[in-house]
Amino acid sequence: MKPEELEALKERALKELSSAKNLADLEALRVKYLGKKGEITQALKSLKDLPLEEKKTVGAKLNELKEILEEFYKEKKNSLLLEEEDREEGIDLTLPGRKPERGALHPLTQTIEEICEIFTRLGFEVVTGPEVESDHYNFTALNIPEWHPARDMQATFYLKNGALLRTHTSPMQIRAMLERTPPLRIIAPGKVYRCDADVRHSPMFHQVEGLMIDDKTSFSDLKGILSFFAREIFGEKTKVRFRPSYFPFTEPSVEMDISCVICDGKGCRVCSQTGWLEILGAGMVHPEVLKAVNYDISKWQGFAFGLGVERIAMIKFGIDDIRLFFDNHLNFLESFK
Amino acid sequence: MRVPLSWLSEFIELKKSPEEIAEILTLSGHEVEEIFDLYKRLGEIVTVKILEVYSPEDLKEVVLCKVTDGRDTFTVLTSAKDQVKPGLCVALAKPGSYTFSHQKVEVKEVKNYRSEGMFLSPFEAGISEEKHALLTFPKDVPLGRSIYEILNLEEPVLEIAITPNRGDLLSLYGVARELNLITGWELKTFTFDKALLEGEPFSGEIKILEEEGCFRYLGRIFRGVKVSESPFFIIKRLFLCGLRPINNIVDITNYVLLEVGQPLHAFDWKKISGKQILIRRAKPGEKLLMLDGVERIFTEKDLVIADAEKALVLAGIMGGEESGVKENTEEVFLEAAWFNPKWIRLSSQRHRLSTESSYRFERKVDPEGIPLAALRATELILKIATPTGFSQLVDLYPRPYKRPLIKITPKKFAKILGFEIQKDFIIETLKKLGDLQIENETFKLIPFSYRQDLEIPEDLVEEVARLYGYDQIPDTFPIAELKAKAPTLEIKTERKIKELLKGFGLFEVITYSFIHPEILEKLNLSKEDERLKVLEIENPIASHLSVMRTTLIPSLLEVAKFNATREVEDLAIFEIGKVFFPEKELAKEKVHLGILLKGEKKLLPWEGYKRKYDLFDLKGILEELFSALKLEVEFRPFSTEPFLKRGFSYDLYLSGIKIGLAGAIKNFILERLDLKRPVFIAEVNLSEIYNLLKEKKKPLKIHKPPKFPSTFRDISFLLDKEIPFSEILSYVNSLEIPYFEKLELLALYEGPPIPETKKSITLRFWFRSEERTLQDEEVNTLQDEIAKKIFEYFKAIPR
């Protein structure tokens, strides 16, 4: 093959390759030039008939041309592939995905977890205890003797064996203090029971109890920790206020309100036009309670609080009927995925 | 407690609006739950004009009026036939509203005449004592407007939640005194004519026979009283506070109770045998027919007021029918006493009888305020019931109330509050709470007798802090030891299980710990089954919630049922909760996990692939769960549970201990519960697992990336249907095959063309050497050897 012929072949091949319209055309051209019986391959094969000197020069040139064409072919193929993929219509992209199964934890569990997580960060230890309690732990040790009118605040379920269903998680204060030596910080989530049922009351509900005892934790600290908690769970902008209240097992006692999350404190039906929602009760642990667990009241002091999980969940999720939590209808549960 | 502001203002000058007063009280610890206008609360009472008046012949006492409220017309029957005439404007209480004396107004039909409401007299409108005339308005009055708006009348009432420690606030005067303490607004105190202290000699005898039950007892007799209806101002105020008027004497005792918080009782003196008032314990079995019409039987723990013969009153709680003041009573004995709060509380609880009186005694009345109440009642009786004479005031006070002495230092305030309140403020506040002495750096306070809630230094800290304002005390973070314990194994494991099951597509449910005893019976349990030994609730809220659950299965079935009746037949749910068994004291509480699968498994519907849950869905969930917990749980086929289908169930064992069950619920039980099949249930005793987890846990086996490739060979064969897969597995494991890595069950088939007694199985054996690449020939040899052994052992036919 003469150099001019070689040059012409190169020009022709490149021109044809570059004008290929689709992959099929391109493939045909590949076969035409680079295939087993292609022109280049044939030319290479025919080298053997040439004199050695010519074999060398033409062979080198042919190989060079082969490489150029192969390279050109690859690039052309890539660009045609790209063009073709871009033109492809594809599938119905609006069909739903093939989902891995995913359930959900109950909204109350999610709320309890969130509350516990906040306090665990502050070094509170999570403890649990019995739901069937004695009168002593549920009432007497908490400075609520048999004749105390405060017992009216908690309609109690009694069992036929004389025990009762705890009406609050506060017995955990007593149990935790008896099992530990101060200083201590505990948080106790759990089920509690009261003989009460309507849109806002369920005979079984959940509370989280908190207790911090050392030699200097004060009322200001109580305010600080609980304000922090409110902002963590309801958002940075939440306003809180503290109102004096009464619990036999704390003194001073306090109730904490947050600015209504529905109306932002302007006043609405949910907050009875007050702009505030009550979310927990707390106070400095009453000396009688410390005495009941043989703690030296001249040395130890601290605060306790109890909050209603349903209440917080109802506020957080905007739920107006407590019974929804215990009906467990799938549609309701699926909302919390 | 209801506090009408019009009444409150008699004792204190109210310098703020009702809303502001409510805010002040709330922020001082007396939560105002509601502010309402009592007139508005009555409902729709509007001005109407009478258009026409008819006197149907078949109605004698009443006439029929057609009226308009400016928009619509109504017909109203009225007995005021002499007063009504066309053109007259009157007050119409529309159906659904209430009259001031708390009669509900409803649509009435008399002989086919419809009456859509009631014309009100000024009395029934709560405006004046006039009962017989209708309330009328000028001819040009706007129609259809609230009569109270037209008359510009308001009766704002605060509903205050008084905490149980503040019995001293259960009265108008008490609330006024507290407002004075908070705001400094001037308090108006009572003054009495000195003559009220004197009187004729007492013509009977009063004896306190039980000093533990009665600390103080005052009595006085009134002669020649006229018992009749009370004047309007008393009636109105009783209604405002939610009490019903009876007669002037009884009303006065209630009025004074509301006014100053001291319960009083009035007796018909002529009914008192032997002219003796005895305060004593009841005799066992002593009976009394009481004012609520119920006869009660007393015990020695009850305190009664008795005459020479019998009990007359359950002290401090409720009087007897017989000795009460009635229309014909001429001589009245008035009692003002101070009973032991604990006794009253326990008696009231025993008899399930709570009254305005017992409620206040339980919460401690002011022992030094009793004479004031007696004098106030005397004053009102003299004015209203015009007695011809009254006796001296007998005052038995065997054990005078001793006020406590509370010592506290400024340091203590600061230590508890974490903040120093100015000493001056502390002193000023303490002075308002009692008699204060200051010695060196110590405050010594003897609280006023009505402040019996003040007993210890902490009580004073609260008083000072709340009057200072809780919001004025800064928020701080405690400085504490930087240490914290990890959550317990139980808590961590429970969380892990919940997260795993959520990941498997299950939804967590939370159900009541109490269940219906009948649902346990429906589970077909044998009589000896410990799950039938339930803890019963003495006072259940409903019979279907009357026993503590011993298993989670009934609760899960209830959830399935609730969903099924609300269009959800497909469910995959779980619960972790406690079950309860009787024990000597309290209960044995165990944490259980329950799982329920029902109906169809959720898959992509547009792929046309749907199927019902089967046992292996449940088993797979449990296997994965236990695997994640590193527990080797054994699934023993054929559960012994009477509610599970034998051939589709397992008992679960861990270290030889039964820890649970899993399987399909028997069909007849599902029929009983009206649930669609299939329902798969598992219940696992987590408490037991926690115990075993503490002891041992399967160690992790770490696999490194392989250095040499693996290779596999499949073996297919037919064998008897009866042979369980587990047998093949354990046989293969017993063979000690060289280079054997793992076994997979590749295919399992029953049905044509396979003979009926057989099943077809394909097993895939994986081989690998740690040292080299295995040669095809040696693996082939292994395959042949294994196949031969299996075929021989199981009498299997190669395929």
UniProtKB/TrEMBL annotation, chain A:
<dbReference type="InterPro" id="IPR002319">
    <property type="entry name" value="Phenylalanyl-tRNA_Synthase"/>
</dbReference>
<dbReference type="InterPro" id="IPR022911">
    <property type="entry name" value="Phe_tRNA_ligase_alpha1_bac"/>
</dbReference>
<dbReference type="InterPro" id="IPR010978">
    <property type="entry name" value="tRNA-bd_arm"/>
</dbReference>
<keyword id="KW-0479">Metal-binding</keyword>
<feature type="binding site">
    <location>
        <position position="251"/>
    </location>
    <ligand>
        <name>Mg(2+)</name>
    </ligand>
</feature>
<dbReference type="InterPro" id="IPR006195">
    <property type="entry name" value="aa-tRNA-synth_II"/>
</dbReference>
<comment type="similarity">
    <text>Belongs to the class-II aminoacyl-tRNA synthetase family. Phe-tRNA synthetase alpha subunit type 1 subfamily.</text>
</comment>
<dbReference type="GO" id="GO:0006432">
    <property type="term" value="P:phenylalanyl-tRNA aminoacylation"/>
</dbReference>
<dbReference type="Pfam" id="PF02912">
    <property type="entry name" value="Phe_tRNA-synt_N"/>
</dbReference>
<keyword id="KW-0460">Magnesium</keyword>
<dbReference type="GO" id="GO:0005737">
    <property type="term" value="C:cytoplasm"/>
</dbReference>
<keyword id="KW-0648">Protein biosynthesis</keyword>
<dbReference type="InterPro" id="IPR004529">
    <property type="entry name" value="Phe-tRNA-synth_IIc_asu"/>
</dbReference>
<dbReference type="InterPro" id="IPR045864">
    <property type="entry name" value="aa-tRNA-synth_II/BPL/LPL"/>
</dbReference>
<keyword id="KW-0436">Ligase</keyword>
<dbReference type="GO" id="GO:0000049">
    <property type="term" value="F:tRNA binding"/>
</dbReference>
<dbReference type="InterPro" id="IPR004188">
    <property type="entry name" value="Phe-tRNA_ligase_II_N"/>
</dbReference>
<comment type="subunit">
    <text>Tetramer of two alpha and two beta subunits.</text>
</comment>
<keyword id="KW-0963">Cytoplasm</keyword>
<dbReference type="GO" id="GO:0004826">
    <property type="term" value="F:phenylalanine-tRNA ligase activity"/>
</dbReference>
<keyword id="KW-0067">ATP-binding</keyword>
<feature type="domain" description="Aminoacyl-transfer RNA synthetases class-II family profile">
    <location>
        <begin position="117"/>
        <end position="315"/>
    </location>
</feature>
UniProtKB/TrEMBL annotation, chain B:
<dbReference type="GO" id="GO:0005524">
    <property type="term" value="F:ATP binding"/>
</dbReference>
<feature type="binding site">
    <location>
        <position position="459"/>
    </location>
    <ligand>
        <name>Mg(2+)</name>
    </ligand>
</feature>
<dbReference type="Pfam" id="PF03147">
    <property type="entry name" value="FDX-ACB"/>
</dbReference>
<dbReference type="InterPro" id="IPR036690">
    <property type="entry name" value="Fdx_antiC-bd_sf"/>
</dbReference>
<dbReference type="GO" id="GO:0000287">
    <property type="term" value="F:magnesium ion binding"/>
</dbReference>
<keyword id="KW-0030">Aminoacyl-tRNA synthetase</keyword>
<keyword id="KW-0067">ATP-binding</keyword>
<dbReference type="Pfam" id="PF03483">
    <property type="entry name" value="B3_4"/>
</dbReference>
<dbReference type="InterPro" id="IPR045060">
    <property type="entry name" value="Phe-tRNA-ligase_IIc_bsu"/>
</dbReference>
<dbReference type="InterPro" id="IPR009061">
    <property type="entry name" value="DNA-bd_dom_put_sf"/>
</dbReference>
<keyword id="KW-0820">tRNA-binding</keyword>
<dbReference type="GO" id="GO:0006432">
    <property type="term" value="P:phenylalanyl-tRNA aminoacylation"/>
</dbReference>
<keyword id="KW-0648">Protein biosynthesis</keyword>
<dbReference type="InterPro" id="IPR012340">
    <property type="entry name" value="NA-bd_OB-fold"/>
</dbReference>
<keyword id="KW-0694">RNA-binding</keyword>
<comment type="subunit">
    <text>Tetramer of two alpha and two beta subunits.</text>
</comment>
<feature type="binding site">
    <location>
        <position position="462"/>
    </location>
    <ligand>
        <name>Mg(2+)</name>
    </ligand>
</feature>
<feature type="domain" description="TRNA-binding">
    <location>
        <begin position="39"/>
        <end position="148"/>
    </location>
</feature>
<dbReference type="GO" id="GO:0009328">
    <property type="term" value="C:phenylalanine-tRNA ligase complex"/>
</dbReference>
<keyword id="KW-0460">Magnesium</keyword>
<feature type="domain" description="FDX-ACB">
    <location>
        <begin position="706"/>
        <end position="799"/>
    </location>
</feature>
<protein>
    <recommendedName>
        <fullName>Phenylalanine--tRNA ligase beta subunit</fullName>
        <ecNumber>6.1.1.20</ecNumber>
    </recommendedName>
</protein>
